[in-house]
Amino acid sequence: MNKAAVVIGGSGAIGSEICKRLVGEDYQTYFTYLKNKDTAIALEQAFPGYLHGIPCNIRNHEEVELLIDRVKKECGRVDVLINCAGISGESLFVNKSIDEWTTVLETNLFSIFYSCRAVVPIMLEQYEGVIINVSSILGTFGIPGMEDYCASKSAMIGFTQSLASEVARFGIRVNCISPGMIDTQMSKGAQKQIGKSVKKLIPCKEFGSAENVADLMGFLISEKASYITGENILVGGGLGRTLPVS
């Protein structure tokens, strides 16, 4: 195995599935975690020697840089970077604190700047690489009480498109995946509150899975997607893309 991948936020439902898929594609895969230590250990034990969990505060650029330096030293290269860490703020705007706003923006948006800032120079030297940023369908339209989350995910899409246009000539592709309502632990609260209403608006009539996201990721890092860059691809079963009439 001579390919290396980094997954920022690899211990969540989507991140874990992405890590497994990368190992299946013969990547030495390094993933970050902060609180989900048990999940991280279980992942490592399931794929010994192939998956490497590294505790990292992705809101700290120095820790992110140390992570990327470690991968470069141990593997000699970084072929794929996946940014899929994310948290949501769910308080009404009039009640939202500055700390809450800052935490969401730093986790969801600043972290991808830190990781890309560390990885892009390596990929420039290689003259190849793939970066995928996992945004959200809420980066394309808003929802009450989630101004910070929506702002961060919308900005991620713009960041992706801008970076893609800058590095494409160096053999680096940058794309964005925007999941809709995916059946994960993070979405349980939203499913309980508005799940029935949302499902009525989904043409496919069901919530997505982490596997759906990982499937698209697997395609985008492959040679079959060699002419795709700067795109934001939704994995939402048609949510928000059709007029809900019967």
CATH topology: Rossmann fold
CATH architectural category: 3-Layer(aba) Sandwich
Shape: globular
- Write the H/E string, N to C: EHEHEHEHEHEHHE
What is the strand content? Answer: 15-25%
- The helix content is 40-55%
How would a textbook summarize the main sheet?
7 strands, parallel
Rounded to the nearest angstrom, the radius of gyration is 17 Å
Estimate the mean pLDDT confidence. 91
Termini gap: 51 Å
CATH class descriptor name = Alpha Beta
Query: What class would the helix/strand composition place it in?
Result: alpha/beta
Whole-number total of structural domains: 1
Low-confidence stretches: none
- Count of helical regions: 7
CATH superfamily: NAD(P)-binding Rossmann-like Domain
Instruction: Describe the strand arrangement of the main beta sheet, using strand numbers.
Output: 3-2-1-4-5-6-7
Q: Using DSSP, what is the number of strands? A: 7
Protein name: SDR family oxidoreductase
InterPro entries: KR_dom, NAD(P)-bd_dom_sf, Sc_DH/Rdtase_CS, SDR_fam
Domain Ketoreductase: 3-180
Organism: Lacrimispora xylanolytica
Structure overview:
The chain has helices at residues 13-24, 37-46, 61-75, 98-126, 147-167, 188-201, 210-220; strands at residues 3-8, 27-33, 51-55, 80-83, 129-134, 172-179, 232-235. By secondary structure, it is an alpha/beta fold. The protein has one domain: Rossmann fold (3-Layer(aba) Sandwich). Helix 2 (37-46) links the parallel strand 2 and strand 3. Helix 4 (98-126) packs parallel to helix 5 (147-167). The protein is globular, with a radius of gyration of 17 Å. The mean pLDDT is 91.
